[in-house]
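Students often ask why inverse folding is considered easier than folding. One informal answer: many sequences map to the same fold, so there is more than one right answer. In these notes we will look at a single instance of the problem. The structure comes first.
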């Protein structure tokens, strides 16, 4: 499922995932412009994001500091030219 609403530094974005039955996985894609997640881009989005919260039935991740947000995103960069950030929630 792709959500192509514009997401920017002044946006409040909430996405709720409904679990799928029969062992199927849910996937959500959030687009934040075109390009790669290089060090400069990652630093910028980390500074502009006030809060990142990921809540699952087993855990809650709350990041409220730009350093925490950058450290969360950085190892999750994937793909050619680091064009995606992948967050797995179990």
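Output (designed amino acids):
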């Amino acid at each position: 499922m792709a959500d192509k609403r514009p997401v920017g530094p002044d946006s409040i974005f909430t996405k709720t995932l409904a679990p799928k039955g029969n062992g199927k996985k849910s996937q959500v894609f959030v687009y934040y412009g075109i390009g790669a997640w290089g060090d400069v881009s990652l630093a910028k989005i980390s500074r502009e994001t006030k809060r990142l919260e990921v809540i699952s039935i087993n855990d809650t991740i709350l990041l409220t500091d730009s350093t925490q947000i950058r450290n969360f995103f950085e190892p999750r960069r994937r793909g050619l030219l680091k064009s995606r950030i992948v967050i797995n929630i179990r």
